[in-house]
Amino acid sequence: MTTTKPSYLENQSHRKGLASWIFSTDHKRIGVLYLISILIFFSVGVLIGVVMRLKMLWPGTHLYSAAAYNAFFTVHGVIQIFLFIIPGIPAAFGNFILPLQIGAKDVAFPRLNLLSWWVYVIGALLALTALFSGNGPPDTGWSFYVPYSLRTNTNVTLAVFAAFILGFSSILTGLNFITTIHRMRCPGMSWFRMPLFTWSLYATAWIQILATPILAVTLIMVMAERILNLGLFDPGRGGDPLLYQHLFWIYSHPAVYIMILPAMGVVSDVIPAFCRKNIYGYKAIAFSSLAIAFVGYLVWAHHMFTSGMSNTARMVFSLLTFLVAIPSGVKVFNWIATMYKASIKIEPPMLFAMTFLFLFAIGGLTGLLNGALATDVNVHETYYVVGHFHYTMFGGTGMGFFAALLYWFPKMTGKMYNKRTIVVAWAHIFVGFNLLYFTMMIMGWLGMPRRYYSYPPQYHTYHVVATVGSWILATGVFMFLGAFLVALKKGTKVAANPWDATTLEWKTASPPPTENFQTIPTVTGGPYEFKDGHPA
Amino acid sequence: MNAEKHPPVSLGTYLMVWLALLALTALTIAVASMHFGAWSVLAAIVIATIKGTLVLLYFMHLRYEDRMFRIMLLLALFTLAVIMLLTFVDVLLR
Amino acid sequence: MSTPTHEYHPDSTGSKIGMWLFLFTELLLFGGMFLLYAVYRLKNPADFHYASLNLDTKTGAINTAILLTSSLTMVLSIGMLERRHRKASLWFLIITIGFGVWFLVNKYLEWSHKIHHGIYPGSEELTGRTAGENLFYSLYFLMTGLHGIHVVAGMVVLGVMVWMIGKPHHRVLPVTALPVDAQAHAVSVTVEYSEDAKLDQQKLIRLENAGLYWHLVDVIWIFLFPLFYLIS
After folding, report:
1. ipTM of the predicted structure?
2. Domain range annotation of chain A
3. Global confidence as pTM
């Protein structure tokens, strides 16, 4: 009789306490470290959002200055984008779950993995330093557009350097995942037997590798400009500020696919589990991830329709932008087809996956208005855009992140949270979210510009509604996160596979042993095979 | 499952590649001094690409590696090419 | 390590994939700057041509030859290690680093010369010149500067490889460990240096990967040279 191996939560190294965590090369511990860091920064970002909305209750000067408001929306963007959403699902859940899902003992480069977390922490600390030191946080918007970013006295160089460092963390993660997926799948796990979450991580990793360096070079140039005064973007010296925008968005558009693809991967895993049937169109979904990754490189200048680009470019990019909606649509159709006539169990992960479908669909559809050149000219730089990207990033990736947490928390801890609390939190989140962001879209359509500290009286009611929505949303978010903290202490213990799901991570203990599996499994079928409503 | 070890590349091959690279360098300098105008740029880039390809294929072993490596490299280069092309759609036609 | 030590199975293909992926990031990094160069060159052809006259083609050519030859000595170092000639491998490695030093010395001399004449980023002299010339020199300093940083990084990597390959790892079996049979006769034994074979393979993999990085630095210069020095 074999003795059960100890779980990864029990210290098996020669180090004690905290050191056994922050110097661990175990992908599961690293995933947990990322999860904690990411959730902390997400919470800070949410609070900053609440502070922003608070001011917007009234037009005119209230609470704090316009300069402070500029700093708030910049920092809100930098934190939520670089410290939460981009690392988000891959770093926290990809790290934990990927090797388990493919039957491996760890990732290909465990020490690089640990390094990626350390780099993330260093980048985060640098970003925080930019907030509180010197001339204060940047007030340029998270997009750091020239020429203002070159002239403002605020801590742009430091903040940009922080983002540069964070990019390395992203690159290391991508590098690790691609190699792991190519080289470490267990016997029998062919490419088309991998779970779709793994496929999404693969596509995402390629974007991390090929797009992030462009961000690096853009940020290097901003730093070089500020320090060395090169004149590369200075029109007075022959430079072209539009080139900055091009370079910035050449990364930042593919970045949104880094954000959304893993969330879609989570949904692709969750839906079959709670519909008790195989996913509809496995290959279509797998290939659509690759297609989104690829087409995502061709559309960046739809962020620049009003910048002064050539008319040809505007038309070309508008057309290409419509193309990228197609593979996303493929996924949505296949998910819904999976749900059709299925025996659906609305457990919390499924609830949030369905919320993803609804909110992301709205986000995607509003994206069409942004992508269409003629209409974009009217909504660009208005609250309409702000609504759109919050529906996709928060309603999409955010809900996907929450779904992943709900789905895999029992795997990571061996405990279950209070489902009723989660549902109550969900209700707050859903109501608050739509009150906040749908109102924004209406406001934007009516002409309310984004990043503005004040506004004419006709927008007042909308702002009040939105702010109240932000309170409800924030309450829901913190109730949601609180449920997990409670569960860590008092959650009921669960068996290895509380959802009765089919993918490989569920075939080992919850929480898993350090080596992941008692013996490396051999796979003989697809990832979502059910028979009579149970794993085949 | 480990690397399929291929026999070491002959040192003679390396020497030949090196000589070719030096010769191409001399060529590119010669062509540059011939004032072909706009074509000089093209010639310079073509020769540089040949040199780069030699280094990639022989010194960096791509010729002897699994096909997957060449595909991945082409993917990266293709991405760069697409980015440049689309940027020029703006810059050239303003 | 917090995990119990996994059996070490060197996956040379996996390591290679990792290194190539990293190289792709470098290609894209410099690619972004080449894009900027291409746009500004297109807009200021005459100025770029004129400014390029000020760069010393001879030094650029010598530096090109230096890096190309250093790539040769790099592959020779790897070739020697593959053929188990450790000392020869080390010598070629050290020579490669030497070429790197020479390259950087030349670069230093070039830059000093420019700076001495008032041509450096943000200088009055430069700001006073035409837009195109300013852009040319800004790009020149930025791109060759970043390239130089990568040369230094490469030399550090190669230096670490010198240390790694330089230290011997063969073990001396203590006499008491030799097995004997019941009559205390020494029993013939095949000692499998399996750990050593794995270490050898690991060293080779690492040297190959270090070589890949060095070659990339060479490839980038292959493109930098004509675009800055030869457009006159």
Report:
1. 0.94
2. 24-535
3. 0.94
